Amino acid sequence: MEPNSLVKLNEARRERQAAILLSEIGKGRDRVIREGDTVAGPLGEAVAKAFRSGKSGMFELDGQEFFLNVQVPAPRIVVIGAVHISQALAPMAKIAGYDIEIIDPRTAFATPERFEGVALRADWPEEAMGDGYLDAYSALVAVTHDPKIDDYPLIQALKSNCFYVGALGSRKTHAKRVERLKEAGISDERIARISAPIGLDIGAASPQEIAVAVLADIIQAFRKRELSAAEQAKGAA
Amino acid sequence: MSEQKLTEHLAGNGPAKDELQVAQDWMREGRNLAIATVVETWGSAPRPVGSHLVVDEEGNFEGSVSGGCVEGAVISEAAEVIESGEPRMLEFGVADETAWRVGLSCGGKIRVYVERLG
């Protein structure tokens, strides 16, 4: 392994950026590919597939073996609102392999008793979420119903390249939200990224069922996301 | 690997180690080292593809490629890889008696790629 490749790979990992160390087996040659870098040909397809699955593995091309060492940050769900839906979503997300954290400034909601063992912050999103808080491996779920709490993190999410943005609310509530986001200078294209009404349409009725719909929606967004350079650039613009 | 360390390891709650960062730290200290990586598994292998074992020229190591049963062999191969600079591909079955006793899954097979850093 090239020392420089090791340094580059560790740098990407520290920055929560997905990267692949591509090694030519038996040759001692390797290079680091960051998510969004262009790799041509069949190797490029293998690279894209490896980024999507997050799984390391061997690849053979013209009799040469390659090992793709995939390093992706753990996907995480940032939930705005320590409500019923979040109480159900937290354990389910953990089971599915997603990190989860919950932010709600209302201290009556954000209590450790209601969210045992869950990363919980009883702060305003403005305080809890700094610049770059949401990365390409983050999902933002806003479920307080309160524009004073939900709007700021939604705007942050729409400006970021996070892989999922969802907001709870009826079509009427969402229409009003869209107006506010437009006033805040967010483009229609960006606003269209919001999954609203939140969750896959499975007819969910109870908070627990809505949590299932939300988690399925997030999994779908994560596993089917586009990883081409163009999409990356669009997300980060 | 001690029995306790191995048990923690199998339970998945051992101390969090970052082998790739360890490799970089050791490199900065001027140590010569090899990185062993599980590149393929068949059956119920104890460590997934992508697992690393970092070994220096004195046989100090960090990480794991099998949860204990083939580490010894990988470490001695690593010494030769550090010496020669030639990478090697190793293949192991993990169905030996030791593996059974500590509760590792039997019948698995792994391929481990060992290469020198630099």
Structure description:
The complex is a heterodimer of chains A (237) and B (118). Chain A has 237 residues and is an alpha/beta fold. Chain A folds into two domains: 3-71, no CATH class; 76-223, NAD(P)-binding Rossmann-like Domain (Rossmann fold, 3-Layer(aba) Sandwich), CATH 3.40.50.720. Chain A has helices at residues 3-14, 41-53, 84-96, 125-128, 147-159, 171-183, 188-191, 207-223, 229-236; strands spanning 19-24, 29-34, 57-61, 64-71, 76-80, 99-103, 119-121, 138-142, 164-167. In chain A, the strands form two sheets. A five-stranded parallel sheet of chain A has the order 7-6-5-8-9, with helices on both faces. In chain A, helix 3 crosses helix 8. Chain A is elongated, with a radius of gyration of 20 Å. Chain B has a five-stranded antiparallel sheet with strand order 3-2-1-5-4. Chain B is an alpha+beta fold and 118 residues long. Chain B has helices at 3-11, 19-28, 71-84, 97-101; strands at residues 33-42, 52-56, 61-63, 88-93, 109-116. The model of chain B is unreliable at 1-16 and 100-104 (pLDDT under 50). Chain B has one domain (3-116). The radius of gyration of chain B is 14 Å and the shape is globular. The A-B interface holds A 1-3, 6-7, 9-10, 13, 23, 25-28, 55-58, 67, 69-70 and B 20-21, 23-24, 27, 35, 37, 39-40, 49-50, 85, 87, 89, 113, 115-118.
Helices, strands, pairings?
The complex is a heterodimer of chains A (237) and B (118).
Chain A: H1 3-14, E1 19-24, E2 29-34, H2 41-53, E3 57-61, E4 64-71, E5 76-80, H3 84-96, E6 99-103, E7 119-121, H4 125-128, E8 138-142, H5 147-159, E9 164-167, H6 171-183, H7 188-191, H8 207-223, H9 229-236
Parallel strand pairs in A: 5-6, 5-8, 6-7, 8-9
Antiparallel strand pairs in A: 1-2, 1-4, 3-4
Helix pairs in contact in A: 3-8
Chain B: H1 3-11, H2 19-28, E1 33-42, E2 52-56, E3 61-63, H3 71-84, E4 88-93, H4 97-101, E5 109-116
Antiparallel strand pairs in B: 1-2, 1-5, 2-3, 4-5
Please describe the structure with a list of short key phrases separated by commas or semicolons.
A: 237 residues; alpha/beta; Rossmann fold; 5-stranded parallel beta sheet; 4-stranded antiparallel beta sheet; 9 helices; 9 strands; disordered C terminus; B: 118 residues; alpha+beta; 4 helices
